[in-house]
Every structure is written in C-alpha cells, then in structure tokens.
Specification:
- About 50% of the residues lie in helices and about 10% in strands.
- The chain is mainly alpha-helical and about 375 residues long.
- The strands form three sheets. The chain has a three-stranded antiparallel sheet. Strands 1-7 form a two-stranded antiparallel ribbon.
- The model has no long low-confidence stretch (mean pLDDT about 90).
- The structure holds iron/sulfur cluster.
- The site of iron/sulfur cluster (SF4) has 10 residues, from α5.
Amino acid sequence: MEKLNNYLVPDYYGDFHCKMGACRNACCEGWPITLPLKDYYKLLGAEVSGELRIKLDCALHLVERPTNEEYAQILPRYDGRCPMRMDDGRCALHCELGEDALSDVCRLYPRGVRSGEIRECSCANSCEAVVEMLMERNDKIVFRSVPLKLKAPVQGERKHYFETAGCEMEIRMHLISVLQDRSRKLTDRIALLGMTLKHLSEALKASDHEWVEKILKNEETIEIPFSAHPAHEDLMRGLEIANQMLRLLDEKSESIRAYGTQALDAFGSGEHEFTVYSRRKEIFEKAFPNWEIWFEHMLVNHMFFVQFPFQDRPVNLCDEYLALLSVYMLLRFLLIGNAENDREKAADVASAVFRLVEHTEFDCLAAPMLKRICMNDYENAIRLLSL
Ligand code: SF4
C-alpha cells in the first residue's frame, strides 16, 4: 500500500482529468509502450479474458537489446493506436487487471514524478487536457506542498550535478517568478529570464553565494538586451531564424511536421513573408487576447516539469535558456501559422510542440542549432522574441 508523502505540485494538479475517449491526440497513440522484464512476465502469466490474451500475445514483443529496465514493448496497431486502448478511451489492461498491471508510463502519464530532495509532481504540456486547462485559466500558477499517495516510478541515479549554492529550488522558483511578473510584456520577461540566468550562471561558477543571494532577492539590477519595439530588420531576422529552425526540426519530427509545413507555406518567403506573418499575428492575437497568459502558464509548467534549468544532462544553464527560447519560438510560430480562431486546433498545435520537446532530444538539439543559425550571437537569438 502506497505511503502518503508530501509533493510540491502546481495548484492545477488536483483538477487534472484525462479526457479518455474524447481526447483528439491520445497519448496511447503513435508510440510503443516499453516494459521492464518484471512487467513483461507479469503480463505473460496474467489471468485475463480470451480477447485480451490474444491482444497481448500479438502486441508484446521483446526489444532489440533487452535490459531489465527496457525488456519488451507493447507495439501500436497499424493505425498507431495502442491495442489495449478501448473505443471509449479506457485501457483494457487497466480494466481487467487494475492499475498495478500498467507500466509506469501508462499508469502515471501525463504526471511527471520527481523523487529528489523535495518530492515533486506536475503534468506534461504534451497532454491535450493539460494545455486546454492552462488555456482557460487566468491566475498565475502557484506551487504548493500537498500529501499524495503515489507509487513513484523507480528513478535511475542522477548523472549530472550543478553548482546551486545549496538553493536549487529557490533559484528555480525565482526564475519562474521572473516569467510570471505581469508588470512586463511576456517577451521582456523571457529576455530578462535569459539575463538573470546569465548572471546566476556567473555567480555560481564563481561560487559567490552572496551574489546569488542578491540576485534571488532582486537586489541586482539586470538590464534586458531587447527593445520593446523591435525594428523591421529585427523582425525579418527573427522570421529568418525561425524559418531555418523549423525546416531543420521538420525533418526530425513527426508530431509537428504537418503544422510546420502549413506555417512555412502560409508565410511564404521574402518581404511577402513579413507582411503575411504580421497579418496572421494580428488574427492570432485577436482570436487569443490572453495568449501571453496562456504562454506564461505553458512555459512555467514546462520549467517546473523539467526542473529548469537543472535538468539531469550535460547542458549548461545558458544553453538550457536557448532551448526554452526555442520552445517559445516554436509555439509562437506554429500557432500564428495554424491556429486562426480555433481553440481546439490551438491546443493540438501546443500539445504537439510539447510532444516534440518532451519525447525527443529536442532540448539537446535546440541550443546548438540556434547557436549555429545565429552564429553564436546571443543578441541575434533574442530577435526570436520579436516574432
Ligand atoms: S493525452 Fe492526456 S487527455 Fe489524452 S488520453 Fe492521454 S492523458 Fe488522457
């Protein structure tokens, strides 16, 4: 029986409900479900109905190089759908054998459970119900410690550690507060987030804890290198960078390809591109007058979900920022290129962007890609905020 433990969660956590059969882009579609050795043998020997036995025997396959953690997979059907998914959206395995028969990913998604010094849990933006919930909310996301009974997945040993001056969570929450400071435009906040992280990174590298403290208390003046009224060439350069990045990402990603092609086709190229882009931007901002708040929620939720900027990988803090900037660019570019006045379509585009971000090496690709396109010029990259 699971013990009650305190978890730091975003205040929407208790309101999350899976849309089941009503979900347009179900998470049980499009990829194989990987199982550890113990779950594989549990399913092989489980007492189930004849119909489910046939489905299991057809769907269960060993992976190419089996390990204890990744031993077998439930392969999707010809149409990409998980063979366990029933027409009403429920899972046949769950219905017949209960939650414990499910792999961690099926049991928990879209929840991300982190069992570090502070236990954390939040929901992924790649889930359609999550981005729709965030689209409808106005108040800033607040993080609270609540008791939860959760069977946390076995988590591997952390591999990458950062100097955090012993205040990792304070730094993360400070960066989130920069993004939630609605006294500034969202683009100014994202620019300020970048500069704050640059200062923090220097202070941490110098192990200057006093300096870190000063930044966390907003006692350090940090200028943002970004004009509130970007010049025409900034916009053109921003469009050019976004265009190049999208073409590169399109090659790598199923989930955004259709939206990417639609946006690139819609904008065209050259001077024409800028005019069309500006017109579509107006349509998008008129149709979604609260777009800044929605973006704020999605970026804040993403930062908490991935433990920004201290993810478990060998990427420095400034590159983590460029990865976040790329997420903003993708959201903005694809929504302006696709959403028009359609809230469902907007939610589909947003959750597709986060499927790319959360389920691929996007974050590790984005910063080097952006640096290459922007010739390692930070000012250049920041032009993406003029989009
Ligand atoms: S994507 Fe979200 S809403 Fe859709 S089936 Fe999965 S958990 Fe449910």
